[in-house]
Amino acid sequence: MALTWRAAALMAAGVIPALLWPSAGTVVAWTLLVVLVCWADIALAASARRVEVQRFVPQSVRLAERTASELVVRNVSGRRLRGVVRDAWPPSARAGEGSVPGGPGRHAVDLPHQEAIRLTTSLRPMRRGDRLAGGVTVRTLGPLGIAGRQHTLPVPGRLRVLPEFASRKHLPSRLARLRELDGRAAVQVRGEGTEFDSLREYVVGDDVRSIDWRATARRSEVVVRTWRPERDRRVLIVLDTGRTSAARVGAVGSQIGAPRVDASIEAALLLSALASKAGDRVELVAYDRAVRARVQGAAGPRLMPAMAEALSVVGPALLETDWPGVVGQVSDRMSQRALVVLLTTLDPAAVENGLLAVVDQLTRNHQVVVASVADEEVAEMARGRESSSEVYDAAAAARGDLERTAATTMLRRYGAEVVEALPDDLAPRLADSYLALKAAGRL
């Protein structure tokens, strides 16, 4: 049973006869009259259980993009259906307002028997992962609109929210630099990530180490060998999903920052897109103490959809990352030299107790890049000088910065490249580091 504001108004109207004929019998009689009217209205209302509802939801949508949930409601109750239908979604789905005020996803309906209507609820999800729809609540009203019936029908629906990939705006400029790198003059000194390009005549200033003496002996002129960055290299992106990835960064003032793992996902997507265009083979593993997501064997146009699908459900786990396990994952997948990108944190305690103990095992066989998100709030603290408490905060921030610099120095001493940037800058900075390694022939 469902009562409306009209029922409450009708009950309140009983004050008038009670004032005119003040007696207990008057109040009881009016109450019974209101109850009888409500029961009559309920009896004449369409059955909320005899309504057929179908839900149509897109399979996936990118974070913060708009989409819609559509309900097809058919009245098979045998009576005219007047009332409200509510399409329930979790708050993170950001369901838009329907045609009835008072809550998201509410729609007024007026359907004759055997008629159907399509109801649309706008959605703008603000969290990655699977957003599951709730039940569809149907509230029917009688002819007087005083009371009616209500029932919630289980109508399942699932919307997968993919990463936003806001860093795609940096892709065109990095692709232009990649094309420039492929088309410029080849390098003269061979590196670990280069392959033979061509022979050309020696000119003053060329490195004598690049002279091809056999080709020179066959010709009447001195010739040198040139090399170009090698394609079809292996790139393994390791996304740390341990407890440190749950820390929120990018908070300014009262604004709540996003988890560190979100910025790492953006960096992984941009690097994957760029490396794929460069002709390299890209793989990904999200790991803490177990594999949370894996992408392997996908190439060309299949790579980015596979990346988005795998990373959509990745979230931080409140566990310490098993760094020896990370080394095992890399060893199992990469038998030859590869670029290994570790998207983790440079917090001194985490580096000293975890990554630092195993980084030499990775740099011995691979080119390693450690990428981490810097916290803008810490940078703000370091600039504070207005009060004694701000000075203490600035001193703590400066000490933390020195400790991170020491951890970075130790990683570089073992042969790893280190990239640290604010959340919005991490993805392009990591892409620039990849291009620099490519240009130097170090992949």
UniProtKB/TrEMBL annotation:
<dbReference type="InterPro" id="IPR002881">
    <property type="entry name" value="DUF58"/>
</dbReference>
<dbReference type="Pfam" id="PF01882">
    <property type="entry name" value="DUF58"/>
</dbReference>
<protein>
    <submittedName>
        <fullName>Uncharacterized protein (DUF58 family)</fullName>
    </submittedName>
</protein>
<feature type="domain" description="DUF58">
    <location>
        <begin position="199"/>
        <end position="381"/>
    </location>
</feature>
